[in-house]
Amino acid sequence: MTSDPRAVLTRPAPAPDVTVAYGEHPDQVADLRRPSGTGAPRRLVVVVHGGFWRHEYDRRHTDPLAAALAALGHPVAQVEYRRTGQPGGGWPGTPDDVLAAVTALPRLAAEALPGVVMPTPAVLVGHSAGGHLALHAARHVPDAVAGVLALAPVADLAEAYRLDLDGGAVATLLGGGPADVPDRYAAVDPRSVVPLPTRTVVIHGTLDEQVPIAMSRAYVAANQAAGADMRLVELSGCEHFGLIDPEAPTWSKVTSALRSFGEDH
């Protein structure tokens, strides 16, 4: 593993097999990867990338993650969505795009990957801001989500606003703070409604400097107290980007959590 944890963001990876569109905007697309091998059918894994919802970060930085998951036998879809700093991004386009993608992708993947058997619904894997969007989808379209693997998610937007994560990223997404646009926070902040109705595993590194682990601890504790099927896996010595790096020593923890979403759930 490289000494620079951000190296995964630009590491080359095999190209996806096909790209499908779930909307008319050029960023309303998803890259699909066929699963390797001939093992038992597995659910579609929908990868929702992070980057604090900003247009500077797109799905390409999750290529190593997606390729590794496909190599393990999972059909994979990497979702793109409109982001802040580009037309249609922010409120409400960014969260709406992910809801549309999660709803449409099982059908689109089945059509674009003939011969690949994918039990439905899909499992969502979201990192950082993508973790927020995955939790948002599980809340609003629960029938389309078999489970959520949230990797260092921004699970409390009001707290992220208070902490000024990534220099005002939440205010840029929603157009202000909780006192300015309370209805928007109520609609998309995972912390505003518990319990989450979907089985969820949250993984967070103790050395994360981008999204503090205290946020996941509080979010999971609140959901567990309300009866949610949710657990937190804390990774000692892991920072923010090791969670999406197949070459990181923590990768086995990520794949183990994904396996916990068996086809019997």
Automatic annotation (TrEMBL):
Lineage of producing organism: Bacteria, Bacillati, Actinomycetota, Actinomycetes, Micromonosporales
Protein name: Alpha/beta hydrolase
Protein origin, superkingdom: Bacteria
Gene3D superfamilies named among the record's database cross-references: alpha/beta hydrolase
Alphabetically ordered keywords of this record: Hydrolase
Domain BD-FAE-like: 31-218
InterPro entries documented for this protein: AB_hydrolase_fold (IPR029058), BD-FAE-like_dom (IPR049492), GDXG_lipolytic_enzyme (IPR050300)
Coiled-coil intervals, chain numbering: none
Molecular function via GO: hydrolase activity
